[in-house]
Inverse folding.
């Protein structure tokens, strides 16, 4: 993904302090933390569903029913609008939205 160094972090904190003031910073930080936590949770859930779906296909358990619905659910969980997209386009966008597990989590 991307990395924020110490200089960038200091610049962000100074800008936030100037924009919001000292009294609003704890509330802002709490909101940002909760939002990031919710996003990561949805991302993990989508990764799990995608892995289970791929496993079903590999093991031959998948019979084809509900594939589109599963793809649309995963896409919506990641904030992707599935309308007017083929299954292949959805799979491609889902894979782009989910960083590889090896890179994201040690």
């Amino acid at each position: 993904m991307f990395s924020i160094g110490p200089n960038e972090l200091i610049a962000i904190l100074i800008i936030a302090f100037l924009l919001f003031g000292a009294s609003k910073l704890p509330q802002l930080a709490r909101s940002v933390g909760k939002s990031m936590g919710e996003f990561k949770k949805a991302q993990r859930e989508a990764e799990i569903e995608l892995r289970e779906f791929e496993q079903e296909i590999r093991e031959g358990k998948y019979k084809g029913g509900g594939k589109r619905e599963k793809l649309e659910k995963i896409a919506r969980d990641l904030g992707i609008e599935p309308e007017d997209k083929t299954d292949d386009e959805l799979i491609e966008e889902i894979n782009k939205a989910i960083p590889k597990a090896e890179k994201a989590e040690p």
